[in-house]
Amino acid sequence: MSSRESDIISDLKDEKSRIQGVFSSQSLVKVGTGSTQKKTIQKTYWFVKELDDDQVEIQPLNINYVPSGPKSQIPKDELLEKFSPEPEFYTYTVYPKMRELNKTVARADRHRQKGESYSAEYEYSNALKVDEENIRANFGLGLTYLERGDKDKANNIFERLVKLDAAFEKEHKHLFNDFGINLRKQEMYEQALKYYSRALELVENDENLYYNVARASFAFKKYDQCFEHLKKALEINPEFEEAKKFIIYLTKNKLVSNKSLNAKG
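User: That's the sequence. What structure does it adopt?
Assistant: Structure tokens below.
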């Protein structure tokens, strides 16, 4: 058995032998109009990963045969009933492409950490040619631009990231935080505020997120909005010392309107 096959088998199975691999589904679609209309079978490939509670996560493959785009969950029984396993396609086509994509992003990360900005940009760009919605590559490229002060290019990445729900998932929290911090460092306050506000739509009960919205609001001189988000942070965590000190600063310097100060809640 080759080392690649061993890696694939190891990747396919965890300690509970959960499902992980490529499945396909078929649907009937109409092509053309009127008398020339025909019905044809359309085959779609999905990367599938088993979760808890008999649920599986499915994500479509893009034209480069790597998982890309929105993920969704379906019952495991539905997968087994309506989808067909594609083990050879996964083993010899999809898995190698996924592995190469991860290696490309890892090389880019190493270049960025070493301060090799243009080498990092090259590798991240190569990764995005394969998967334009790759979260690590988008964040990495955005951070590369921010760290070298290229605001226009960083703003293009920002506009892409705020549209990707996956950018705000827990697994990307470290990159998410770094990106927000660097937006503020570059005085891109409007983008930082929009960025954190977008995150609030997708993340619940995170006092640090409310605090970051407050900081972005303060930098943008939206003091009442800053005050309201600090209060929400303290509702979640009453022992949040930084939020307490921030509120004291706002009130001491009379930056908050009487309407906000007297509001209930």
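DSSP finds twelve helices and five strands in the chain.
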